[in-house]
């Protein structure tokens, strides 16, 4: 079953066409990656899906319902959650408080919210930091908190925008296994990332865009040797490790 379908999505900012007639389908349970050069339009695609921008043209279907004119908070209630490329926690509040805030989307009981938040922190091996203020976290832990907050809304589809940027290689490996765990718990994942090692390890399927247009789609091994992708993004010296 398809969980998300983008049909001829176009997004203009004044005279700039950031996304150009893009078609993407995500199957339930898969990890689909969106890659491409800086400024290719990746985050804009996420912002269209999450209801931040209204696409200039085209249609978006989530669980077979048309969603391209809905507000982000209503979309979140229907099971669509996202992280931000620039993380935005409540810095003066604890990790637990930050995650609990998101659980209130689905419950009004403080007790239930706390239990759910603690369960999620456990899942992410993060429970030992529950009382640390978000402002004192390392970049790796801030990224982990960003995913934990999104998971606290109990999504069916999770959009991850560069959750591995700025992480050390061992932290990237940890994040790859966290994301796989999230998928194994029944969440479909749409991920934007520049770290190719992580993309190759994670993705079932990869879509490549340049100047807002799809230039390739396929399995990781196919994308790694696609001439157009090598020219536009990966570079000649890219080797599949
Ligand atoms: N709110 C906006 N107003 C005007 N132009 C925008 C806006 N958001 C994005 N753009 C432009 O749209 C294009 C696509 O930007 P976008 O942020 O989607 O790229 P990206 O693929 O996510 O890049 P990166 O890999 O650097 O994060 C860029 O030229 C950007 O400057
Ligand atoms: Mg971006």
Structural topology:
Layout: E1 2-13, E2 16-27, E3 31-35, H1 42-49, E4 57-62, E5 65-66, H2 72-77, E6 80-82, H3 95-103, H4 110-123, H5 139-151, E7 157-161, H6 169-184, E8 188-192, H7 196-202, E9 205-210, E10 213-218, H8 220-224, H9 227-234
Parallel strand pairs: 3-8, 3-9, 6-7, 7-8
Antiparallel strand pairs: 1-2, 1-4, 4-5, 9-10
Bound molecules: adenosine-5'-triphosphate (ATP) and magnesium ion.
Strand order of the largest sheet: 6-7-8-3-9-10
Question: Separation of termini?
Answer: 32 Å
Basic shape: globular
Bound small molecules, by name, code or SMILES, are:
adenosine-5'-triphosphate, magnesium ion
The biggest sheet amounts to: 6 strands, mixed
Structural class: alpha/beta
The number of distinct β-strands equals: 10
Q: What CATH architecture of the domain at 2-86 and 157-234 do you see?
A: 3-Layer(aba) Sandwich
What's the CATH topology name of the domain at 2-86 and 157-234?
A: Rossmann fold
Element pattern in H and E: EEEHEEHEHHHEHEHEEHH
CATH class of the domain at 2-86 and 157-234: Alpha Beta
The chain-level mean pLDDT equals 93
Description:
The chain is an alpha/beta fold and 241 residues long. The chain is built from nine helices and ten strands. It has helices spanning 42-49, 72-77, 95-103, 110-123, 139-151, 169-184, 196-202, 220-224, 227-234; strands spanning 2-13, 16-27, 31-35, 57-62, 65-66, 80-82, 157-161, 188-192, 205-210, 213-218. Helix 6 (169-184) links the parallel strand 7 (157-161) and strand 8. The protein starts with a strand and ends in a 7-residue tail after the last helix. It binds adenosine-5'-triphosphate (ATP) and magnesium ion. Magnesium ion (MG) binds at residues 42-43, 85. Magnesium ion (MG) is lined by residues 42-43, 85.
């Amino acid at each position: 079953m398809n969980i998300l379908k983008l049909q001829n999505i176009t997004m203009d900012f004044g005279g700039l066409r950031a996304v150009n007639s893009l078609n993407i389908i995500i199957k339930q349970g898969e990890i689909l990656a969106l890659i491409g050069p800086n400024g290719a339009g990746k985050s804009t695609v996420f912002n269209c899906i999450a209801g931040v921008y209204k696409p200039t043209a085209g249609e978006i279907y989530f669980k077979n319902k048309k969603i391209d004119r809905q507000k982000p908070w209503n979309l979140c209630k229907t099971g669509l959650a996202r992280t931000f490329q620039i993380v935005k926690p409540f810095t003066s509040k604890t990790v637990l408080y930050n995650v609990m805030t998101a659980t209130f989307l689905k419950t009004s009981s403080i007790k239930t919210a706390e239990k759910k938040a603690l369960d999620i922190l456990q899942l992410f091996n993060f429970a030992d930091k529950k009382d640390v203020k978000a402002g004192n976290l390392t970049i790796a832990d801030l990224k982990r908190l960003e995913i934990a907050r999104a998971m606290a809304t109990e999504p069916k589809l999770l959009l991850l925008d560069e959750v591995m940027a700025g992480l050390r290689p061992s932290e990237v490996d940890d994040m790859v296994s966290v994301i796989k765990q999230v998928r194994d718990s029944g969440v479909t994942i749409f991920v934007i990332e520049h770290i190719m090692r992580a993309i190759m390890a994670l993705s079932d399927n990869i879509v490549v865009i340049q100047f807002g247009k799809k230039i390739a789609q396929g399995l990781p091994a196919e994308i790694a040797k696609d001439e157009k992708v090598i020219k536009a993004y990966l570079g000649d010296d890219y080797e599949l490790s």
